[in-house]
Amino acid sequence: DSGVTQTPKHLITATGQRVTLRCSPRSGDLSVYWYQQSLDQGLQFLIQYYNGEERAKGNILERFSAQQFPDLHSELNLSSLELGDSALYFCASSVRGREETQYFGPGTRLLVL
Amino acid sequence: GDSVTQMEGPVTLSEEAFLTINCTYTATGYPSLFWYVQYPGEGLQLLLKATKADDKGSNKGFEATYRKETTSFHLEKGSVQVSDSAVYFCALSDRDNAGNMLTFGGGTRLMVKP
User: Fold this and answer.
1) Which among B32, B101, B105 is the nearest to A48, CB-wise?
2) What Cα–Cα distance (Å) separates residue B112 from each residue in B2, B12, B83?
3) Looking at residue B95, what is its pLDDT?
4) d(Cα B55, Cα A101) in Å, to the nearest integer?
5) Which among B42, B59, B100 is the top mutation candidate for probing chain A, defined by the most A β-carbons within 10 Å of its own β-carbon?
6) Which candidate in A67, B6, B77, B78 could, as Cys together with B19 as Cys, close a disulfide (CB 3.0–4.6 Å)?
7) Residue numbers of B between 55 and 84 with CB closer than 8 Å to A
8) B49:A101 CB<8 A
9) Strand B108-113 to B11-14 pairing
10) For residues A103 and B52, what is the distance between their CA atoms, to the nearest angstrom?
11) What is the pLDDT of residues B9-56, one digit of tens each?
């Protein structure tokens, strides 16, 4: 158990819908990262937040957005969902001062029908 | 940009065989290197890491040495077990990039037969 929690574990929804994925980092970690794992694209970095501020952006679609709240939990919002958005979404967190080492949550499996 | 290349799987071995999974990288800065493991139906677990050239990371019998001259970070284990069956990902974090995002290889599936 890495100490990073993600909810829900599974999510099934329809095209065009909007969903919110939630992540709680390990106690004391200020950085939160979101990654997408799909069969065709592999593991891709989406976005990073540090203490409530966006720090880095990767291959994140405009339909996707994220935020980190004062209690340091983070949410990833996916809207206007398409079939191709079906994937495993991971959250990770890292320790202040050793931010290159990331600990991953169990992931949220999203299925868009 | 940064990239990581892993040998394609699946790699199928008998129990107690020697394991090598090749990983090479391209980075503009001075990356830290990682191996993560994903067991069936689970998330990514950090297996080992190395943060500078010639460092050796090790954990649970697995080892990998950061070779800057060959830009490689090959994963090895002397004697694999059935319980090692999983997908292994090589990754790098480039300190020169804003943020500390990980760039992953495509993953290598290992299957160990009794």
Assistant:
1) B101
2) 31, 6, 8
3) 67
4) 15
5) B100
6) B77
7) none
8) yes
9) parallel
10) 20
11) 899 999 999 999 999 999 987 899 999 999 988 889 999 999 999 999
